[in-house]
């Protein structure tokens, strides 16, 4: 900025020439300069006041707008911001194949305390014990009066409990929102669903994670935010599942069994329509695992998937199918069943000595161990092993349960000829009822391999061919004969052609050897036999039927009638119309007058 001089030389010289005082010129210029400076300062101050006024006006407008929003919104308690990574609590619903709800989410609250904010900690502890029976009053009092700044009291409370805590009026007792997993059907399909619990937790949210069953096996899929509101659809039918569990529980009590399992599978798609294991539990209140003793006795143990048992004579049909497929025998080939069959120090006997030769079909119908072992000797150990592998009996199932990979069939270390002979009639190797159902589905659906699944399939997955359609049909005929004139005569259901095979295996002792009075009784069936739609496997642990003079433990007296009742209940639910034999026309006599 260029400033005018106070004593300009030209004016000073002119003033001296005219006899004027030069100092007056300086005073005049100084006064003009001061006046100009005052004008500039005033303008600058006015501009700043204007800007400040605009800023304050905007701030007041924003505050007023925010107050309007607050006044118009619903009242709510302020929430503390969660530190760290955001906890995603959303989890997809689970439904059955018809859209009926199996698992969903429910909004609830957790309860925690901040002792520094508490006014009457001792009174609060006393009142909380009246609301919640679990906490100890003395322990709560020590925590509330100690140095801790944060205490979890209950991670999940009901609305009634929340209101009761509100009524205490203690500002140090606070609530955090929670999203809990709810299973509206209680015990139903408990081993399939498994259950869920809390993972990472904060005061404002908690992470819901699966702990067992499909909840854990498909945990990432269920927690995927990209699913939106799309539920996970299982292959189960809730109505059929309820009927199966009800009949199975009744049969378990009637036969005095310690446990039971059932698997119902679509023979063409491998979809599991029902999977039950008893005893069971409520996934809403999942019990703790056993800390000692046999885990197989725990209600958490899934007998249908995790239970590995010697499944007895249900395996005989596999031996026969392979021998016929490889043209080693035909259905009318005579097999020597006189016993005992000796192999080294081992003796193979039949439950009832036939004392004669039987055709291959009758080896199955009469359930001859000796005859089946002789057929296995024709096949050989290596070929037998390969065939059972193709049926899925030597590896864990791929079903969508977290427990499935650990259920690896128990096989002999060396598959010798004697092992081949005993395995041919279901002894010497252990598999689960789900393994058995899968193998029967493959064997009887026309011979194409199925893969078990708990997810609904819109189209059947066509597997590789394991045996021919002709062999598959012959096996259905054999199993039908077992029901009509063999060991499973109690399995006949009016209107539905049931085919199946019984299996009774002695239970092994933990220290070695077998119990004389404890068995696993199994009935593997298919219906309708002429056009198979479903495979049903029912297994009972240590059953005994006591209606006769002597206790009976074989599957024909225990597992078979239970399976027959299951089929009688569920076949109409599955949309299968019973076969009704046409009545013969009434004879008409022509009368002449």
Give a verbal description of the structure.
This protein has 593 residues and is α+β, with helices and mostly antiparallel strands. It folds into two domains: 94-233, Penicillin-binding protein 2a (Domain 2); 240-287 and 296-573, DD-peptidase/beta-lactamase superfamily (Beta-lactamase, 3-Layer(aba) Sandwich), CATH 3.40.710. The chain has 17 helices and 16 strands. The strands form five sheets. Strands 1, 2, 3, 4 and 7 form a five-stranded mixed sheet that branches. A five-stranded antiparallel sheet has the order 9-8-16-15-14, with helices on both faces. A two-stranded antiparallel ribbon has the order 5-6. Helix 3 (121-131) packs antiparallel against helix 4 and helix 3 packs antiparallel against helix 5. Residues 76-85 and 583-593 have low confidence and may be disordered.
* Main sheet makeup: 5 strands, mixed
Q: Would you state the CATH class of the largest domain? A: Alpha Beta
Q: How many domain units?
A: 2
The portion of residues forming beta strands comes to 15-25%
N-to-C span: 148 Å
What's the short story on this structure?
The protein has two domains: 94-233, Penicillin-binding protein 2a (Domain 2) (Alpha-Beta Complex), CATH 3.90.1310; 240-287 and 296-573, DD-peptidase/beta-lactamase superfamily (Beta-lactamase), CATH 3.40.710.
